[in-house]
Amino acid sequence: MVDNVDVTPGTGATIAADDIAGVKYQRVKISVGADGSATDLAPGQTTKANSVPVTLASDTDTLPVAGSVASGATDSGNPVKVGAKYNSTLPTLTDGQRGDIQIGSRGSINVQLKVADGSGSISSTSTPADGASNSVTNLNTSAYQMGYNGTTWDRMRGDTSGLLVQHYALTGSRWSYAAAAGGITNTTTAVTIAAAAGAGLRNYLTGMQIFADTLGTATEIAIRDGAAGTVLWRGKINTGGSFVGAEIKFTCPLKGTANTLMEFVTLTASGTGSVFVNAQGYTAA
To answer: In the CATH scheme, what is the code of domain 174-284?
Structure first.
């Protein structure tokens, strides 16, 4: 099917057409230019001077520009760059006004730090809280000391008088053993000074106090890890008996096996006289 149509205005000419269902539609080539000149409109992006001018109708709203993902939705697609403005003198805005993001002369964004969940600004000072003069301006910040409790990091606490640091362990993990009435007499049967602490927890012995009557037989004494288990510490009481080590301190606490009891034993029966032992420690991983 031939689209073009021959026109004979006397000498003959051909016009471009498109045959659609037997009807000829003329093909039109667009040109742009001032009166008396015409330049063919090139396809694709070109200069403003070579483009078709477009004017929006007076009753048309401004074209909206929006991102492709709503606030709070899962991010997707390519990010959109955000512009900002440099002002040597920063603007002062009032309530409800819209403003530009401000940047420094090298492109860094200007920000103002605020107190957490508050409207107050974080301040800077050249005189720190300790009163010592400093020529450098410092940022005032607050930091919390943290300690590991065996499972999570926990904030250290005190009262209005200051921070209290407990020796060895927190109160809730401490244990103590007091000598039974009459003490340990003429036996090699051990006494449990700390029960098994539970899965993953060990007993730690930090100190003990030992007293003894006049004994019929000198005896070795020991701290054992578990029932009849490994000896962690050993000593001896002679027949004369004595006030033995009223405060035996373990600078490096004796450490037991996880979930295992700790016991004290007189390895030789004393015959006569009794041995009294008191012990203190804590449980931890």
So the answer is: 2.60.120
